[in-house]
Amino acid sequence: MPIVRLDEATVRRIAAGEVVERPASVVKELVENALDAEARTIRVEIVAGGRELIRVQDDGTGIPPDELPLAVERHATSKLHRFEDLARLASYGFRGEALAAISAVSECEIVSRVPDAPYGARLLVRYGRPGRVEPIGAAPGTVVTVRDLFANVPARRRFLRQDATEAALIQRTLAALALARPEVRFELTNDGRTVLATGGSGDLLDALIGVYGAETATQMLRLEEYCAGEIVVQGAVGLPRVSRPNRQALFVLVNQRWVESRTLVAAIEQAYHTLLMVGRYPIGVVAVSLPGDRVDVNVHPTKREVRFADERAVAAAVYEAVRRTLLAHVPENPPPPVTFSPLSPSVVQRRLQVADPTRELSSSRPGTPEELVDAPSSTRSADSANWLPVLRVLGQVRQAYIIAEGPDGMYLIDQHAAHERILLDRLLAQLEARGVEQQALLEPLVLELSPVQLATVERYRDALVQLGWELEPFGGAAVAVRAVPAVVQRSIEQVLIAVLDDLAAGGRGTTPLERVAISTACHSAIRAGQELSLPEMRELIRQLEQCRVPNACAHGRPTVVHLSTEELERQFSRR
């Protein structure tokens, strides 16, 4: 094919792809424009996850009528005037692409009024074709309304995720910007309901409450300002007990700009070393400030990535700031493990104090170490290769693993994974039979949720109800918990928050019902670090033997590790 010049419409659509990946990209660009316009209040409204409507309203300096046509042209900007300005850039936007890119793939209306003008001006751009500038009554500031995003690019529209997912991405984007600028008032309305609001007082705590909710925000530690030469680190991080199953609640800011930096995220996670369980991630906002010539923000079209002159120094400063704060409030070393000796019956026979016993296990009868744990023969299938042999419980290692002896060697049972499998099988069996057993609360438990958690409740409402969760709106971002599944014997608040965070991250399973069941079982199960008595360990193994697939938990992790007699003899050079 011969080389030809692309027409302007095609060029616009291609350029739009660099900046406008999804509705959250539109919100980010428009809000950053509002911040550059010195706005003190920014309101965002979305409908259908942003694909039908995105409206961003600010009280900033506005755009003069004669500059509106320029605002939607490519490479037109007020942020810089020559290449050298990039080295000392202080604004968010600078490429002159945002409005041009957005208006190329949507029906975009801009209404703006500068503070000293008697009236405002309106410009409508339909998929890259601007109309005439018209006078209109308007409040000082700018309102940008984007409708039918990607309607002229069907392939990209089809690849958008579900409305709830796109809305959650928008919430996370606005949350990051709100944490970066606590002196600005932010508000997000999703399908007519306010899901995020900050006060704009300038106090980081107010912004944390608006983003994470009051309950979580009060369990976060303020990072004392840490200086390493020209590098300054501030922010707030969560205590280990408010960790999450993903990194969605962790934000990194560089010179008040939200960025994605694997190196800095890794430094933060390393600061939590020995303080978090495997598979759990910290929450918080870590803000790094350094001279503009020590960081390049013009690496990515959407400015998501940055390049540091000395990345190691920045990462080291972040690690030190977070680690010092954590160690000032949390012991560095975990509690010592339970010790026992197979040759000392006085140790293995003593009843250990259970920190948070589960109802299923506490009902087991007392016994002696010599008792064998065996499942009723009626529960075993003759052709099944999954059930466990007769086992004799010996004790517990590191308050996490049960040691048992079988006819063909030694068995190590992961108490959390085993209990997770037991609870999941119980929930699924109840669903197939008469419905999940429910435990009503004498008094409703009122919890304040984050915007993402609240959206997750709405998305999974039917599945949550089927699994025994009874949640009702309680005004604002709060819900009232009136009943829970009977398997929930740990802190109801901790279990529910963990379940919602799991679901928001996608969960595990092929259906909403399955995802809720797996997550509920996982977070209701006994934890590593929880001491169990010998009768409770026997009861746990007995229940595990009755499971249909006892050798793996719902996440695919093994519940049992077997060391054969032959392997033990080889290890001790007996054969």
User: Distance N terminus to C terminus?
Assistant: 73 Å
Count of DSSP-assigned helices: 19
CATH fold type of the largest domain: Heat Shock Protein 90
Principal-axis shape? elongated
Strand content: 15-25%
The poorly predicted ranges are 80-86, 332-347, 349-386
What would you say the CATH architecture of the largest domain is?
2-Layer Sandwich
Short description:
Pfam families: DNA_mis_repair, HATPase_c_3, MutL_C. This protein is α+β, with helices and mostly antiparallel strands and 575 residues long. It contains 19 helices and 23 strands.
Protein architecture, described:
33% of the residues lie in helices and 23% in strands. It has 575 residues and is of the alpha+beta class. It has four domains: 1-193, Histidine kinase-like ATPase, C-terminal domain (Heat Shock Protein 90, 2-Layer Sandwich), CATH 3.30.565; 219-334, 2-Layer Sandwich (Ribosomal Protein S5, domain 2), CATH 3.30.230.10; 345-419 and 529-571, formyl-coa transferase, domain 3 (2-Layer Sandwich); 438-485 and 491-524, MutL, C-terminal domain, regulatory subdomain (Ribosomal Protein S8, Chain: A, domain 1, 2-Layer Sandwich), CATH 3.30.1370. The strands form five sheets. Strands 1, 2, 3, 4, 5, 6, 7, 8 and 9 form a nine-stranded mixed sheet that branches. The chain has 19 helices and 23 strands. The chain is elongated. GO terms for molecular function: ATP binding; ATP hydrolysis activity; ATP-dependent DNA damage sensor activity; mismatched DNA binding. Residues 393-532 form the MutL C-terminal dimerisation domain. Residues 354-379 are annotated as: Disordered. InterPro entries: DNA_mismatch_repair_CS, DNA_mismatch_repair_MutL, DNA_mismatch_S5_2-like, HATPase_C_sf, MutL/Mlh/PMS, MutL/Mlh/Pms-like, MutL_C, MutL_C_dimsub.
